[in-house]
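Continuing the series of single-chain predictions for the mutant panel. This is the parent chain; the variants come on the following pages.
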Amino acid sequence: MPPIRTNRVKEKLANGEATVTISGVLSSEMIDFLGPLGFDGVWLECEHGGVTWEQLGDMTRACDLWGVTPITRVNANEPWLITRTLDRGSMGIVTPHVNTRADAEKAMQSAKYAPLGYRGMFGGRQSYGVADYFPAANDQSMVIVLLEEAEALQNLDEILRVDDIDVFFVAPTDLAQTMGHLGNPGHPEVQAAIDAAIARIVASGRTAGTLVNDGNVAGYLEKGVTFLMTSFNAWLARASADFLGQVSGKA
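Parent structure:
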């Protein structure tokens, strides 16, 4: 029997390498287009998007085809939801609103089989044809917790003590609103809080993640962030404006 598929993002992070996960992906066809471009992971949006369970299975299969890691944001820190998402082929879980150590423990335990957790004993698509799937799945599955509220940063030291969490992701826009700066993640107070949180994560020996763009990615790499998530929307908007500008300028 073949071994379990390798989680590319997790493998690179374990080697101390920076990884890039692309978001804004709405279909398996889009994953087929992005697959050969070199991204390590694809962020599948099930908190703010309309992805169905059937579509999630198709999208994770497309990720498998190109050897990129399917990472899914669920809409709640619920064991049944996390279990089903993994059963549909996701290799990573992003759990929102992790504000306490208990929240972090719940997210991790929901994604892991015993002895680490209590994920329901069903393998799903990633288990087909894999010998010794259950222990291997614990090694390959990823747990990413979102630190997106001021409360999470107040409890960060306790959250960082939870083992078997792969990425502690500081979410700028949601953090901004809980700090009283709605829609303004660039506010100096928010940026200072993000930088302080990242410094604490890195100093603890854990993996920091955040949302990046062309203008700030170099700075976050210097600060030790190795899980980088970005959207291609800004690239498309910029390229479209350049192209349409050339056309209108010649008309």
